[in-house]
Structure formats: C-alpha cells, structure tokens
Amino acid sequence: MTELQKRVLTGIVGIVVLLFVLMQGGIFLKLALFLLSVEVVRELYNAFRNIKINLNIISLLIGCISLFIFEIYEVSLDFSIILVLISSFIFVLFSEKYSLNDIAFTVFSFIYGPYLLNLLYGLDKSLIYLVFIIAFSTDTFAYFIGSAIGKHKLIPKVSPNKSIEGALGGIIGCLVLTLIYFYYIKLPINILSIIFIIIASMAGQIGDLFASKIKRITGIKDYAKILPGHGGILDRFDSTILIIPFIYILQFFLF
Q1: What residues form the membrane-spanning segments (predicted)?
Q2: Partner of 235 for a Cys bridge, out of 35, 65, 174, 231, CB 3.0 to 4.6 A?
Q3: How many CB atoms lie within 10 A of CB 56?
Q4: What values do phi and psi take at 161, rounded to 5?
Q5: Count of alpha carbons within 13 Å of 232, Cβ hemisphere only?
C-alpha cells in the first residue's frame, strides 16, 4: 500500500470515527478527548526530549485525568492548570530530576495540548462541528489553491511548501463554506461572526505553522506514527487545537 493510499484510508476511517464521536457526544466525546490528550502529552514528551527538555509526565497525566473528571462533574477546566502547576512545583522541590525550564515547558505543553483540546467539550454541538469545518476547509483550500497558483512563500524557514496565496485561499474558502453552514443551521451572520471566522481560520494556519516550528526545533519529521500516512495526533490536529479557543469565545457572543 502506497503512502497516498494509507493517507486516504486513514482519513476515511478518521472521519467516520470523528462523526460517530461527535454525534454520540457525552461520555464518548469525553473519553475521546481524554485519549487524545494523553497521546498529545506522549508526543510532546518525546519531541522535547530530543532537545534535553524533560517534561514532567506525571503532572501532565494528573492534568489529563483532572480534565476528564472535571468534565464529568461540570467543574471549570481552569482548575486543571492549577493542579499541573502545584504538582510541578512539588516535583521541583523534592526532585533533582526537573529544572525550572522543564516545569515551564510542562505547563506550556499542558495548556497548548490537553487544555485547549478539552475546551471542545464546552461548545454547543453545532459549534463543535464548526471547529472541524473551519479546520478542514482551511487546510483543503490552502493546499489546492497553494498548489495551483502559490508563488510567494509564507514562512519558508518553518514550512517551505506553504504560500501566501494558499493561506489567503484557505481563509476565503473557509469563510464561504462556514457562512453556508451558518445559514443552514440558522446561526446569526453578521460582521462579528465573519470576523471570528476569519480569525479562527488564520489561527488554524498559525497552529499548523507553530506545530511545524516545534518539529524543526526538536528535529523530528512527524510527532508519531499512530496515524498511517498522517503521523501523530498533533500532526493531524495541530490547526484544530488553536481554532477551538476562538470558537469557544465566539460562543459567548452567539448564544
């Protein structure tokens, strides 16, 4: 099986699983977010280890478990950050294994990965779908338009294949599809929602570039090999993770 065939097959299976989880919601979504969070932690741990940064895996797992429990009992997810901070401080005090630099990267990794990812559970179901519509449409339009007419490199030192034309095409294509979705589910279409869609699409591309920057710094090609043809969870959800908080904010203005 070629890499393209693996990529397509994994993509089809992934979409089916994603739709099932989103349609079922509830405990299925909570478990999915927990498993994704643990895998993201593993991928970041392995990546940063290449540059001698020792993430506190126990604190990160405490954070992931607390997110899962807090979602069940409808407690603010912000408390999970406090737990990660306190547990990290304890390890610094009683163990020579971790430096302040390690702890800083541990807290960053938790907020960047599990915390932002789990904000998805606090969204209305229609907005959960919106997150993935923005992510997938931006990626798709950016790829095809960039491949067709892309001439000016966006940030060649980070991602040499991405172009300014592709980035703009991704935003425009995303805006069109998202406004159709807004109209279909009767969400308000106004200047505020349009601005948020554009910002969320840009955030998705920034998330993609940021994840690529981490890979270049840590000297890895992919975060993992868990998804044949795609790499790791972060390779697939890098743009989605940064879109979620913007849609989370948008929810307060729409509902």
Answers
A1: 12-41, 53-73, 79-96, 103-121, 127-145, 166-185, 191-212, 233-254
A2: 231
A3: 26
A4: -90, -10
A5: 24
User: What's the predicted TM-score (pTM) here?
Assistant: 0.93
With tokens 């606090």, the residue in question is 122
pLDDT tens for each residue of 206-241? 999 999 999 999 999 999 999 887 899 999 999 999
Q: Which two tokens stand for residue 170?
A: 């991704």
Q: What is the pLDDT of residues 4-34, one digit of tens each?
A: 577 778 888 888 999 999 999 999 999 999 9
- Amino acid found at 29: L
Report the alpha-carbon distance of residue 89 to residue 194 in Å, rounded.
42
Report the pLDDT value the prediction gives residue 2, as an integer from 0 to 100. Answer: 66
In 3-state terms, what secondary structure has residue 7?
A: helix
As given in the structure block, the two tokens for residue 115 are 């915390």
In the predicted model, is pLDDT for residue 81 greater than 90? yes
Which burial class, exposed, middle or buried, applies to 6 when counting CB atoms under 10 A from its CB (0-12, 13-18, 19+)?
A: middle
Q: Which DSSP symbol is given to 120?
A: G
Q: What pLDDT, on a 0 to 100 scale, did the predictor assign at position 145?
A: 93
The confidence score (pLDDT) of residue 51 equals 97
Ramachandran angles phi, psi of 231, nearest 5°? 105, -125
Domain boundaries along the sequence of the chain:
1-122, 124-255
Triad 76, 249, 33: Cα angle to 5°:
55
